[in-house]
Specification:
two-stranded antiparallel sheet, Helix Hairpins, about 65% helix, about 400 residues, Bacterial polysaccharide co-polymerase-like
Amino acid sequence: MKHVGTPQGDMVDPGSVPPVRPAARPARMHKRHRRLLLSFYLFVCFPLIAAVGYLYFVAQDQYASTMGFAVRTEEVSSPVEILGGITDLSGSSSGSDTDILYEFIRSQRLVRLVDERLNLRKIYAAPSDPVFGLDPTGSIEALLTYWNRMVKVYYDPSSGLIELRVTAFQPEDAQRIGQAVFEESTALINNLSAIAREDATRYAASELELAVERLRLARLAMAEFRLRTQMLDPEADILGRMGLLNSLQEQLAAAQIDLDILNETTRSGDPRVERAERRVHVIEARIVEERAQFSTAEGTPNGAYATLVGEYESLAVDRQFAETAYLGALAAFDTARAEALRKSRYLAAYVEPTLAETAEYPQREVILFTLAAFLFGLWATLTMVYYSVRDRR
């Protein structure tokens, strides 16, 4: 028996060496492999081939028109501030107005307005391209959904800038739609400015109307008093009567002095004494009558002069208060109106609607790559799920 040597010099028994297996046969495709390959063709290859054919031979080119704008608010300094050396001309964007404009561009109202001007259903109708075209018989809701596909709005809240990208099958149509959006947006901002000015002056205007009505009623009451009493000013009338009374007092004093002189220098029964005494009595009677008018105010409907004076003073105070309130309300209204006019909103376009020369959409390569990744991922997921379920049985 012969022993086999090893490099180390040990002896190995030939019976302990394992037998050499024959070479493997060539691999063959089994039935499950064919099913897997068929599913790959059905779920991945065929849809991709159909998508390639549609995108490159059916889908129409789309041209994009871009534009950019922002809502600006200008605050012009008043003449007082300018005289004081404060000439602050500030231009800033209004965040709330920009938010409103952003939602307006994506709203059904704007779609309806632009459709009435340009006939969007006719512009986007493409019978040969049912995927990217619009059904002209669709409702306004369908038109709004399609609008949000073809009109993209990009808004930066930090800067207040809005960028708009409008796509259409003709470059002129895209530019016209962008211009229509800008014009309708301008109308909206102008309307918001008018509403803001009206709100700013509404309270001051209402206060001015109340002040005017109060002044009118006060003056009317004063006119009625003068017509009723036949007096323009009771206080002036009293001053006149006081002057007359003072004059009568002086005349009475002079007449009494003359009477005393006659009594001392003439005999009893002198006719001059009788005339002097009659003069004194007449003056005294007149004084009594004038004094009585201050308490009875004869010839006046209201009676006492004090009542007339009190009523007149009350009416005068009401008129003075109404005039003061009117002047204050008028000044407040002028200030509010000037302040409202100082703040003006407008839509400033920093990029006018462009006219495209090359079709940028649909982005065929991007769509195909995205579709291929989606289909392959879906196919791989379904395949792994299928074999995982089968192996568990």
